[in-house]
Write a structure and sequence with these properties.
Radius of gyration: 15 Å
Number of strands: 6
Helix content: 25-40%
Number of helices: 3
CATH class: Alpha Beta
Number of domains: 1
Largest sheet: 6 strands, antiparallel
Strand order of the largest sheet: 1-2-4-5-3-6
Order of helices and strands: EEEHEEHEH
Shape: globular
Structural class: alpha+beta
CATH architecture: 2-Layer Sandwich
Mean pLDDT: 93
CATH topology: Alpha-Beta Plaits
Low-confidence stretches: none
Strand content: 25-35%
């Protein structure tokens, strides 16, 4: 498979009276709904909100480190496609699409176990062969797939 472009958009608005931030990868149409990536995989980090509704700076730094680990773990071989980051109401969610949620989980845990920092994350996977979550995120950002 050819390399997926690394082009992203940023969308911010208020939702339920709180700020929400979307970073969304612009995945080519021919990849959206690919049966090669039939499972959605969500990684969630819950945090105490600052007065602006987002994580404090030191937590942002850790989240950035964590995101770099995700990128290094999956982007090189495109095992899983990292498609969005959503921050809202004390949570940051990284959304990926993968062919194998168990292997994705194992790869993340292996990398995390090698780190000095502690990352407070939870994992959730579900079938999503039509990429409905990603398409919904795009629509929230006033974009079409």
């Amino acid at each position: 498979m050819k390399k997926i472009p690394d082009s992203w958009i940023l969308h911010q608005e208020n939702w339920d009276g709180k700020p929400i931030s979307f970073r969304v990868r612009l995945v080519p149409k021919e990849i959206i709904g690919s049966k090669n990536y039939a499972f959605g995989f969500r990684i969630t980090w819950k945090f105490k909100e600052s007065s602006k509704g987002f994580p404090e700076n030191h937590i942002c730094d850790l989240m950035e480190e964590f995101e770099e680990l995700l990128d290094e773990t999956f982007e090189r071989d495109q095992h899983s496609l990292f498609v969005s980051v959503i921050t809202h109401k004390g949570e940051r969610d990284w959304v990926l699409y993968t062919p194998d949620p168990d292997q994705t989980y194992e790869r993340i845990v292996k990398v995390l176990n090698q780190q000095k920092s502690v990352y407070h994350v939870e994992f959730e996977a579900c079938p999503d062969s039509d990429w409905s979550e990603y398409v919904g995120i795009l629509k929230n950002c006033n974009r079409e797939p």
